[in-house]
Specification:
By secondary structure, the protein is mainly alpha-helical. The protein has helices spanning 3-6, 14-37, 45-58. Helix 2 packs antiparallel against helix 3.
C-alpha cells in the first residue's frame, strides 16, 4: 500500500509542510520570549533582537487597513392612510 493511500484525507503538499514548520518554529520563538517576559529565563538584547527579526520573517505583519465602501439603494416609502 502506498503512503498516500495510508493517510486519511488528501496528501500533504510540500508548501503545506513548509508552512507548518515555520509556524512551529515561530511558536518556539514566541514561547521563549514569553518565558523571558514571565521572568523564567533571561535573554540578552541581542537574543531579543534576533527573535524579533526571525518572527518578522515567518509571521505576517499585521497592519491596519481602512476600507471605505459607499452603498447606494433605491428606497420607496409608503404612507399608510386610514
Amino acid at each position: 500500500m502506498t503512503e498516500e493511500k495510508r493517510q486519511a484525507g488528501r496528501p500533504i503538499g510540500k508548501r503545506h509542510q513548509e508552512d507548518v514548520r515555520s509556524k512551529i518554529q515561530a511558536t518556539q520563538i514566541i514561547n521563549r520570549l514569553y518565558s523571558a517576559f514571565q521572568g523564567e529565563v533571561e535573554l540578552t538584547a541581542i537574543q531579543v533582537n534576533i527573535a524579533k527579526t526571525l518572527l518578522d520573517k515567518v509571521l505576517p505583519d499585521l497592519k491596519a487597513i481602512e476600507q471605505t465602501t459607499q452603498l447606494t439603494a433605491d428606497v420607496e416609502v409608503y404612507a399608510w392612510q386610514e
